[in-house]
Amino acid sequence: MKKYALLSALFFAMCYSTYAQVSFESKAQTSDKPLYEMEFSPRLKLNGYVNLGGNDSKTSQSLNLNSANPYNPFKDKNADANMYQTQLAWKTTYNGFEKGPLVTYVEGQWWGGPGAGGNLQLRVAYVDYNHWHVGQDWSFFGGGVPTWCNTLDWEGPNSGTWARHLQAKYYTNFGKDKLWKFEGGIETTAQYLKVAGGSMPGQFSVDPIFAFTKYAQDGSFARLAFMGRSIRYTKEDASNTLAMGWGINANLKSKLNDKSYFLAQGLVGSGIAGSYTLSGALFGNGGATNMYDGIYDQNGNFKTVPVYGGSAGIEYFFGPKKNLHSNLVLGYTNMSYNASPLSLVQSKVINDNATGDFVTKNNEATTHTALTFGSINMLYDVTKITTMGIEYDAGTKQITNSISQSSMVNRVALGLKVGF
To answer: Which residue of 79, 107, 344, 380 pairs with 124 in a disulfide if CB–CB is 3.0 to 4.6 A?
Structure first.
């Protein structure tokens, strides 16, 4: 009872702190604006979940679909609540330059439960000035926040390109009414590089990206991004060499009517699944729970991992005030591992069972891992910056070679967010 009373008190305290954003303006002025403007914004998050089985109960902050283990299905169930991802954001705008404002932005989050350190982690930090954007931000291979489906699950469909990378890009709007946008630049993703088997590559990655977005007056858009990437790896003679990866990402948002809109995303490429998807970059905990950029096969040859996938979702708003809204999201991701079954087990890409069924019953040169995702939720906006909701997430991980083996994951998520 004490735990429920504490959560209830916390809920009401959050609801009354909804206008916690603090703004400052300098006394010094330009011709029409303050010389400096600053904003300080907290975001409080209360997360709860009931893991109904199928995924690793030790890493259940998200559905974590890729942690499902078809040859050794997880049966444990658990539930928990925490305030992971409680965040702080600080934005400063300097209006003293002729070519426009210079904006700096820093966003951090606390991660870890009571007694676990609660470390403050850097999420986003960038400088933006005169069409240049430099720092750590959401990858512009994806489209950032506007392209995300509105789910409580942190991971979402496994094809989602939602990782945060160090980047330098140039952007500009053009065309009639400035409804076209171009973005071009580079990102580095060395810290997220996921390689199975053999020697770990040197920490090096430079990925050129360019993207075009076409906006509509009603907020709809279509976006297409292209990427090439370099992966440095170590050969058997201990020398370093480069392998090339590539990717294409497409996003679409379409307003259906005054109460609903449609979002879709598609991804195809090779050598990008571990670094450019949220599931690969942030929620891979090693071994078979990872999505990989590359692998070493049974002959010691390095190969990038082909991947394709996509997702689609609809959000519908109820009533004249539109405080109550619901989302339905479906997704699919497929990765191809071009190595023998034994090699994949030895490099921990796949966990075999005690009787060795994956190795003994499969003999094809390529193994496919398919991830099928579904989510439905109901959200209620208490105020403009306070949202609470409940969500059901489910999915299947299927491993296919000569035979197929699958395992299902499902959970219920609860959430409350207050802040920017």
So the answer is: 107
Greater confidence (9 vs 167) lies with 167
HEC readout, 106-162: EEEEEECCCCCCCEEEEEEEEEEECCEEEEEEECCCCCCHHHCCCCCCCCCCCCCCC
Smallest CA-to-CA distance from 37 within 95, 97, 98 is with 95
In this predicted structure, the answer to whether residue 20 has a pLDDT above a threshold of 90 is no
Contact 160, 278 (CB under 8 A): yes
d(CA 19, CA 40): 11
Most confident range, picked from 113-127, 223-237, 330-344:
330-344
Task: Report the SS3 class of residue 350.
Answer: coil
pLDDT over threshold 90, residue 279: no
- The model carries a pTM of 0.90
Q: Other CB atoms closer than 10 Å to residue 393's CB: what's the count?
A: 27
Best CA proximity match to 153, nearest among 409, 392, 403:
392
What the block records as the tokens of 314 is 């609809």
Q: What Cα–Cα distance (Å) separates residue 375 from each residue in 147, 152, 269, 301, 331?
A: 16, 9, 25, 38, 9
Please give the structure tokens belonging to residue 346.
């030895």
Rounded CA-CA distance 248/217 in Å is 26
The 10s digit of each residue's pLDDT in 187-197 is 987 777 888 88
Q: Convert the pLDDT of each residue in 100-155 to its tens digit.
A: 999 999 999 987 665 555 678 899 999 999 999 999 999 999 999 899 999 998 87
Q: Are 165 and 187 in contact (CB under 8 A)?
A: yes
What six digits make up the tokens of 328? Answer: 């339905």
CB neighbour class for 51 (10 Å; exposed up to 12, middle 13-18, buried from 19): buried
**CA angle 120–124–130, rounded 5-degree value:** 150
The count of other CB atoms within 10 Å of the CB of residue 109 is: 18
Q: What distance in Å separates the CA atoms of residue 77 and residue 53, rounded to the nearest whole number? A: 5
3-class DSSP assignment, residue 303: strand
Nearest CA to 369 out of 110, 68, 9, 64 is that of 68
Given the DSSP bridges, would you call strands 78-82 and 86-94 parallel, antiparallel or unpaired? unpaired
Q: Is 141 exposed, middle or buried (0-12, 13-18, 19+ CB in 10 A)?
A: buried
Please name every residue paired with 229 in a beta bridge, in sequence order, or none if there are none.
Answer: 245
